[in-house]
Amino acid sequence: MVASFKDRIWVAWADTDAAGIVHFSNYLRYFERIEEAMFRELGLTFPLIALRYGIFLPRVESRSKYLAPCRQGDELEIEIAFSQIRERSYEEEFTVRNVTTGKTAVEGSVVTVATSKEIEHAVKLPDEFLSLIKKFEKAKH
């Protein structure tokens, strides 16, 4: 089991605020970018998940703890792992490490619920999908 997925990005000027640091709302975008990269690693995209499994994956909760600022040009390593996989939902945990400064910048999580394309209510996550995402499931202690 791999347990997590990591990728790197660089902070763009457009991601910073008047103080020259990454605006807090951009971390959710970073979380989603790393999630998309992880799904690509699994051979999936959001449109393909909808087509193949008949589900959408809306977020129902998010949490972020900001520990250190990031600035334009900083290189960030973002790690994602599935921390709780349930029948109809899963939680992903994210860690943003600022490679430039060596500090952990943000820790966060997002809860996603599988919903039906047709009747728009929570549905069971398909077994094949579950087996794919378990590749990046956080090790249980």
Characterization of the model:
By secondary structure, the chain is α+β, with helices and mostly antiparallel strands. The chain has one domain (5-136): Roll (Thiol Ester Dehydrase, Chain A), CATH 3.10.129. The chain is built from 3 helices and 7 strands, in the order βααββββββα. The strands form 2 sheets. A 5-stranded antiparallel β-sheet has the order 1-4-5-6-3, with helices on one face. The model has no long low-confidence stretch (mean pLDDT 94).
Mean pLDDT score: 94
- Sheet-strand content, in percent, reads 35-45%
Rg, nearest Å: 16 Å
Shape: elongated
Task: Please outline the major beta sheet.
Answer: 5 strands, antiparallel
Q: What are the secondary-structure elements, in order, as H or E?
A: EHHEEEEEEH
Q: How much helix is in the residues? A: 10-25%
Any idea what the CATH architecture is?
Answer: Roll
SSE blueprint and pairings:
Elements: E1 5-10, H1 26-41, H2 46-53, E2 55-56, E3 59-66, E4 75-85, E5 89-98, E6 103-113, E7 115-116, H3 127-133
Antiparallel strand pairs: 1-4, 2-7, 3-6, 4-5, 5-6
